[in-house]
Amino acid sequence: MNxxxxxxxxxxxxxxxxxxxxxxxxDDKTARAFTDELTERIATEGPAGVLIDISRxxxxxxxxxxxxxxxxxxxxxxxxxxxxxxxRPPVAITLxxxxxxxxxxxxxxxxxxxxxxxxxxxxxxPPERGTR
Length: 132
Prior knowledge:
132 residues; alpha/beta; Transcription Regulator spoIIAA; five-stranded mixed sheet; 4 helices; globular; STAS domain-containing protein; STAS_dom_sf; Bact_StressResp_Reg
C-alpha cells in the first residue's frame, strides 16, 4: 500500500483522539490528500474520535461540505466518531442558504467542546456526573 501524500494539514494525536483542522483554502488536490491521510491514520491508529477544527474557514462551498460529509461517513465506518468544531456564523448561514445539511456530521461550537464531546478532558479526571 502506498503511503498517503501529506496534505500539509497537521494531524495530532491526543490520547485516543486525532485532532486536525482545515485551512482557509482547500483545493481539490489538498482535500483528497487530507482525506486520504486522515483516513489512513484512522485505519492504522484506531482512535475513538476525530476532531476537525474549521474555525479558520471563512467561507464554505459545496465541495468542502461534501468533503466533510464523506470524511465523517468514512471515519464512522472505520469506527471513529467525528466532531466538526468552530463553525463561524457566516459559514453556517452559507450552508443553510445553499441547502447543504451536512447529514450525519456532529458539530461543536468550539474545539474544546468538541474534545469534551469525544470524551477528552483537560486535566487529570473527567468531571463527575451527578451520581453521588
